[in-house]
Structures are given as structure tokens and as C-alpha cells.
Amino acid sequence: MNHWTATTEFLALRRNTTLLLVMLALAGTGERLWLGFAPKYLEWLGASVLIIGLFDALQTFLGAVYAWPGGWITDHWGERRSLLLFNGLSIAGYLLVLAWGHWLAVILGAFLFLAWSALSLPATFTVVATALESHRHTMGIGVQSMIRRIPMMIGPLVGGALITRYGWRHGIQLALLGSITLGLITAAFQWFLKDKSPDRPAQPQRQLSFLAVVRSFTPALRELLVSDILIRFCERIPYAFVILWAMNYGHLTARQYGWLAAIEMITAMLCYVPVAHLADKYGRRPFVLVTFLFFTLFPVTLLWAKSFAWLAVAFAVRGLKEFGEPARKALIIGEAAPEIRARTYGAYYLIRDCIVTAGSFLGAWLWSISPQVNFIGAAICGALGTLWFWLFLFRGRKIASSQP
């Protein structure tokens, strides 16, 4: 019993955080059964490069515009009811794509099936913030991030196997049926979540406008936002086209691409708990700086990756870009006022991802020139973001209030 208690304490596990981990594993697996193959599926359905870029832009844009209402709904409804709503919207999106085998269904369905991952982000942050002490936030987010990567590993493996065996049409249909089933099971666990927000704001504070929340950002949070925007351009420019690079230029099968995703997730998962523990103990800034370096290195490694072995190396580097993600998110938690915490997350991600949406279209344009130009452009953005963080947040040590 003592060993069990020590383990749960070390991993920052509470009732709500444990239930949240189960939800993230189930809903995430459902989403990842087919979402990673969506760009290639769109190509198979006859969509152009511009449409594929549009779909990728929608993922970023909806992640942005949904973050603010997701935070508002969470602050007003509580975590349980808001998560049930977001999950229901995602299931509706899966049903639309399943019922209509056209690329337009994927584009329209994105407004629904992306609801879980986009709308729920402020809610999942709030569960961690309200269930754990401030010095345990990085570990709480680290364990959450690790569990999120299990679906990102299992989903593509299962989805790739289904597509390889049954073809794109029937393989995707079976994956969508799996997504719907896992979404319904997720809803059952969400029902037992207990709202726990002792510092929920008084009525006047609840009426804060978006601009008022943005003005409440600390200087450190603003500098983090700038560097994060540049880093996300680095991620987004090649994002939708990595699978095309692997399958069209590297001649990989869907099953092999699933294994690349598994390599990425295993690498990321090995980092989360030890790095979260060290970041909570010694400070978060160095770990964020290292993760920004790995973001920058990934598109560089793709330049020479035209076989499964070299692509495996590149995807391992991509997994290492998650090295300091829990520390970065914990910095946001530490800089957010408790009474408007969810809306602060929502405003941060709304600003970041609205701007980064342009990266998807920029990526499509650069890809139309050549894949190499796409990757080099991404690396330049990553280098600028890393430099900004080093100059204004790491060397200047502006983030101090949330450091242990």
C-alpha cells in the first residue's frame, strides 16, 4: 500500500486526473485510428494539394477558435458537462465522414470531429490545475502528455493495418466505426468526473472580455507566446505533407507509416515522466529550450530521409520535440490567474493557432515548389523561435513566478 501511495503521489494521480487519463486514452485512440492518414486519404479521394493544405489549416484554425469557447464553457459549465459536450460533437463528425465518402465530408466533418482535441484542451488543463498543487503541475501535465501519446502510437498501428488489409475506403470506414465506439465508452467515464473548481470566479470576473483576458497576460507569457508561434510555424509547414513524403517519395506502406508514428510516440513517452520530475525540481526553462531545438531539427532530418531506416531516425527526433512540452504548458499554468485560468489557456491558444494557421497554406505553397524548400522553410522558423526564447525567456530569466 505504501509503495502504491508513493507511486501515485510521484505521478500526481488523483481521482479526476486518473479519470482524465482514461478519457484521453480512449478518445485519443479513436481519433488517431484514421486522422494521421487523412492527408493521404484526401489524396485518394481526389483532393488537390490545396485541399490537403486547407484540411491541415482547419486543424490549426479550429484548434485556435475552439480554444476560447472551450475555456469559456469550462469556466461556466464545469469540466464534466463541457467534456461530455465536446465528445458528443466529435462522434457526430465521425458519423458524417462515415456516411459520406467524399473529400468534402472530411473538410466539413473536421468542424465536429476536431471538437474533442480542440475544445477540451482548456478543460484538461483546468482538471490538472484544480486537482494538483502548483509544484506538481509539470508532473501532472507530463503524465497526461504521456498517456496522450499511447493513442498516437496504437491508433496509427491499428489504422495502418486496417488500410493495408482492406484498402483505403473500407479501412477508413472500419477505423471510423472504432472511433465512434471508443467515443461512446469515453462518455461513460466522463459521467463520473467530479467538478472541482474552488477558485471559480465571481460573476463580474466571469464577464471579462477576450481583450481583457489578453491584457492580463504577464510579460513572460507574451514572450512565450511569440516564441511558441514561431516554433508552431516550424511544425505546421511540413505537417500535412510528411505522410506524402514518406509514402510517395519513401515508398512506404500505410502499415510502415504506422510504425513510424509508433517510434515517434515511444520516444516521446520515454521522456515525459523523468523530464517532468526534473523540471518541477530544477526549473522549466532549460527543458523548453531543448524541445524547441528538436522542433527545429525534425524538418532538417527529413531532407535525407528517403528510406524506412532514415525516416525512423527522423521520427525519433520528432518524438524528442515533446521533451519539454509539459514544462511549457506548466509555464502557462503558472502565469495564468486562477480565477480565469481556462479562459487564459483559451486566449493563448486562440492567438497562437489563428496566426499559425497561415503555416498550413505556406506549407502547401512551399511543397508545390519542392519538398526540400518546405523543410528548409520550416527549419528557419524553428531556429527563429528557439533564438527568441533563448534571448527573452531563458537568458533573460523572465519566467520566474512559476518556477519552483
Number of helices: 20
One letter per element, helices H and strands E, the order comes to HHHHHHHHHHHHHHHHHHHH
CATH architecture: Up-down Bundle
Rg on CA atoms, Å: 20 Å
CATH topology: Growth Hormone, Chain: A
Question: What is the 3D shape?
Answer: globular
Taking pLDDT < 50 over at least 5 consecutive residues as the criterion, the unreliable ranges are 197-206, 398-404
Number of strands: 0
Please give a structural write-up:
- The protein has helices at 2-10, 15-32, 38-44, 49-65, 67-77, 79-99, 103-113, 115-119, 121-131, 137-190, 203-206, 210-215, 219-239, 242-249, 254-282, 285-302, 308-320, 325-335, 341-369, 371-394.
- The model is unreliable at 197-206 and 398-404 (pLDDT under 50).
- The protein is built from 20 helices and no strands.
- Helix 4 (49-65) packs antiparallel against helix 19 and helix 6 packs across helix 10 (137-190).
- Helices cover 81% and strands 0% of the residues.
- The protein is mostly helical.
- The chain has one domain (9-193, 215-394): Growth Hormone, Chain: A (Up-down Bundle), CATH 1.20.1250.
Features:
single chain, 404 residues, mainly alpha, Growth Hormone, Chain: A, 20 helices, globular, disordered C terminus
Q: Could you provide a short overview of the structure?
A:
Helices cover 81% and strands 0% of the residues.
What's the layout of helices and strands?
Blueprint (H helix, E strand, L loop, with lengths): L1 H9 L4 H18 L5 H7 L4 H17 L1 H11 L1 H21 L3 H11 L1 H5 L1 H11 L5 H54 L12 H4 L3 H6 L3 H21 L2 H8 L4 H29 L2 H18 L5 H13 L4 H11 L5 H29 L1 H24 L10
Helix pairs in contact: 2-10, 4-7, 4-19, 5-6, 5-9, 5-19, 6-7, 6-10, 9-19, 10-15, 10-18, 13-16, 13-19, 13-20, 15-17, 16-17, 16-20, 19-20
